[in-house]
């Protein structure tokens, strides 16, 4: 990132996530804990704020990546300006009485339960009673035919694999690369949550203005009191991560566990991840550059354009601009220590999911290298020897083209660069582990230094809880301001205790300055000591030394 | 009876409409939604819903013009009674047919598609009954008086409805009105009174502001809302 070159616009902070796909074993713990925490309710039976897809696969909802069908995200109009793919403002209002491109429940899956009662209530007979599946939509017996991860681990891939829209795209270019025959297949897991985009098309699609991006931390939320159930956001989101609660008639979505993040805890999916593959941290970005970056003409340049929107928290100019924009000191410090920033901007191993939707997603992925290593080892070669690995990347069973369709709009360059860095890291660390002298040319070949590679290794392999999740709390962000509001004339909105029902209610308590109920020590520490001295002084002279 | 139906009922309906809407906005914003069932069934809805909604919007415009544009105004622009009658007959019938066809298909969908039927409340059923009754009675009233000049409601019903606004209801004007028109008017007033208490309330959230706001909305956290907030309707704690 160029330091202090271009002028910095409005600096904003965003809590972002990076997932290291190498480590995902597809255990669905994140999905299940998320479900238990947030969508374990009627009306939300079919909803998974977090789901884990097997790629290649259709995803959830089925074929959601086929934007010619579902019309999600943005596209450029003839003048090169951004417009919603599902149609602009007038088209939305004219077509508000129905939404022709809304996925039906069947496109997700029909949720079901089992008739457990029959197991105990069935009359005595010759056969064992069974618990037959009951639809949670109709309440009637149903045949289970699909679910959110029906094609888990390539189940049914010979039959359904071709339905993956990305497979279709890759085949257009490299016919031979994607195979589903046994012993020729490949797969990896892709956990997905809401992307909390910088340029969210769901927010732009909402006619009621109920969806918004939080200015403090960039989390995209739905105001449940303002949502009127027009369903345009479901269509607008190209990742199909806004869901319609069919009981309440309102939109709901992944909210990045904001009640946890606000107090410095990681999201439920991150906290419970068995592979510890999720990283959380602050990204600083230039809000004024977002629209321009999202309107870059060449889809393959969108990844670079988004990197250009992010700001370097080590840059003093950025720090100053962030402070001027009202970002708390703790947040700037957190941005400097952010593992997410390191993986995205410093090491450049993390890549965005489907940048071609032009929403500027903020949940990034480190592409999987492990299958390469395994495949190499199976052929009898040393899977971690640099020469072997680099050579293998281009002949992956996971074709680079497929990964590129997911992460860089089809440009294999950044995917290869990221995988090569991971390969170099393996080779470098292997030498260290075996007590050999690491070959400096390996690190140099991917444009990194040995120390950088080792730092990246630490972050990817052994980073502890505090290193993986660097989350400044909302309260800390607000604390400085709150502390100062206890002092009169510091801020125009006067005393923070004056809110209705609060202890302050303007002025002092019944017995002078320090009486009355106070819940929080809301004075700055200097004032506290001055007051304490004034109340405990024995001699009048001592008081004179104190500042008034 | 006359005074009750044409002097009291309109005001009761109006008060219920206004007060009910304010009440609902204050205490049930969470329940204020279209309660769409499209996620269950999309094919029929994609046809029926626009047909019904555009139909009912034309019906609404027709009523506004018919009731609140005095006969003298149309006379002034040279529109004689016969032409006006034909306009209102064909235009009104077309709109009514659209709305009725739409709602017919919607009700059929609601009854035959199991998930949609399951999501239908008693409140919905009552609302559908009154809404369909109002539509059918309106059509019947109009089509029973097609011959010649038709029934000129602009000399009786329209002045009466306007007189309501100056708080001097001319109830005597409604005494001689054909009985079908009378029933239609009463059912219509009941429907108006029901609006805030049924899903019809979504008509007031027509998102016109969408045309004028920036695409991406930012909001800051409410600084007074860092802790828990008092429970509100629809958000009560469950269990425990």
Automatic annotation (TrEMBL), chain B:
SUPFAM superfamilies: Respiratory nitrate reductase 1 gamma chain (SSF103501)
Transmembrane segments annotated in the record for this chain: 6-23, 44-69, 89-108, 128-146, 179-197
NarG-like domain mapped to chain residues: 2-221
Subcellular location: Cell membrane
Keywords annotated in UniProt: Cell membrane, Electron transport, Heme, Iron, Membrane, Metal-binding, Nitrate assimilation, Oxidoreductase, Transmembrane, Transmembrane helix, Transport
Protein function: Does not seem to have nitrate reductase activity.
Family per record: In the C-terminal section; belongs to the nitrate reductase gamma subunit family. In the N-terminal section; belongs to the nitrate reductase alpha subunit family.
The name this protein goes by in its record: Nitrate reductase-like protein NarX
Upper taxonomic lineage: Bacteria, Bacillati, Actinomycetota, Actinomycetes, Kitasatosporales
